[in-house]
């Protein structure tokens, strides 16, 4: 199927919310990892989200070029062509973008999509993230409001972060402390600044103990009830029935989370869960295995010539694609709760 239109993406998110499941949002940095993501979603028979961080986009442009917009556009255009061969809906998203990179990443990409929409085409990306976790909340929401106006016009969904995800990802680092928990006041300020959808649709990466990085299961101390508290206080402010979930929530920093914690978060309105660390390892592990098993083929040992079939990148990247795809298919299964995430 073609990359999701704005209407299809909205329907995907609505379906996740109604049926209490979340889409894995898979970070990619190359055509190889993008192909693995597409394959993983297709093998799971699930729609999904593929995303590009600032660092991932810079890498994709080439280590000599190092231009975030060039890399992001290249991956997106590649995805638009290749995704047509897969029987699932895929949305394209850009991950964490801090304040100092907005003008060099998100704003130019939104402008490109606006040009496409003005010509009667669909936007290049379906959503973009503004990560204002490093600035005061009032400034975070002021910038978010400005971006929401731009993204709504370009038929794009905005994602914001309210609270702080601990650990480090792509140079964005935060301490692990009490700021990891979004407060009820933070949720209220968010809806006051950005509205409840009438100014444009947005996703909220609220924090409840999330930490980026590598952790064993049980080491990340999550408090999913923080999400419920936020939904409840905003629902009350908006005069919605008890149990309403006005926010579309995003789960960042989930490595090491227990499955029951993930499923609890789904019941509180999480519809997107970022996955990067696990899929990086799933991609790399088969390559390492190939090199260990074929060391005398990938190296010209003691003056020998090696084995061209062993050091041809296709021989190990094929295995890497399979490994990453399998991990993504597993993630799709884990992010089901009471509902179905099968491609619609």
Protein described:
- It contains 13 helices and ten strands.
- It is of the alpha/beta class.
- The chain is globular.
- The strands form two sheets. It has an eight-stranded parallel barrel with strand order 1-2-3-4-5-8-9-10, surrounded by nine helices.
- Residues 172-177 and 338-344 have low confidence and may be disordered.
- It has helices spanning 6-19, 31-43, 54-60, 68-82, 106-118, 137-153, 184-194, 225-238, 259-267, 277-293, 295-298, 308-311, 313-334; strands at residues 23-27, 48-52, 90-94, 127-130, 157-162, 167-169, 172-174, 202-206, 248-251, 270-275.
- Helix 7 (184-194) packs across helix 8.
- Strand 8, helix 8 and strand 9 form a beta-alpha-beta unit.
């Amino acid at each position: 199927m073609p990359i999701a239109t704005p209407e299809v993406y909205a329907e995907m998110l609505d379906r996740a919310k109604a049926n209490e499941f979340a889409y894995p949002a898979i970070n990619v940095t190359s055509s190889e990892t993008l192909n693995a993501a597409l394959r993983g979603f297709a093998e799971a028979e699930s729609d999904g989200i593929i995303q590009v961080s600032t660092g991932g986009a810079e890498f994709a442009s080439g280590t000599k070029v190092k231009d975030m917009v060039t890399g992001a556009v290249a991956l997106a255009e590649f995805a638009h062509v290749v995704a047509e061969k897969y029987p699932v809906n895929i949305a394209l998203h850009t991950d964490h973008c801090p304040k100092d990179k907005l003008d060099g990443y998100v704003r130019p990409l939104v402008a490109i999509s606006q040009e496409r929409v003005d010509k009667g085409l669909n936007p290049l990306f379906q959503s973009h993230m503004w990560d204002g976790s490093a600035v005061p909340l009032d400034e975070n929401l002021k910038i978010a409001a400005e971006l929401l106006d731009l993204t709504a016009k370009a038929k794009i969904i905005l994602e914001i972060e309210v609270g702080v995800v601990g650990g480090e990802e792509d140079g964005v680092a935060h301490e692990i402390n009490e700021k990891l928990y979004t407060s009820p006041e933070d949720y209220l300020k968010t809806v006051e600044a950005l509205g409840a959808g009438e100014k444009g649709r947005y996703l909220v990466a609220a924090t409840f103990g999330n930490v980026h990085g590598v952790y064993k299961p049980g080491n990340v101390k999550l408090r999913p009830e923080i999400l419920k508290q936020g939904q409840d206080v905003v629902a009350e402010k908006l005069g919605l029935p008890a149990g309403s979930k006005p926010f579309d929530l995003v789960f960042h920093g989930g490595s090491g989370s227990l499955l029951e914690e993930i499923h609890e978060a789904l019941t509180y309105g999480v519809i997107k869960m970022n996955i990067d660390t696990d899929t990086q390892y799933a991609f790399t592990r088969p390559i390492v295995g190939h090199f260990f098993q074929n060391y005398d083929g990938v190296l010209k040992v003691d003056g020998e010539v090696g084995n061209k079939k062993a050091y041809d990148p296709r021989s190990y990247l094929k295995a890497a694609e399979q490994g990453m795809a399998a991990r993504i298919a597993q993630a799709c299964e884990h992010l089901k709760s009471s509902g179905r995430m099968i491609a619609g």
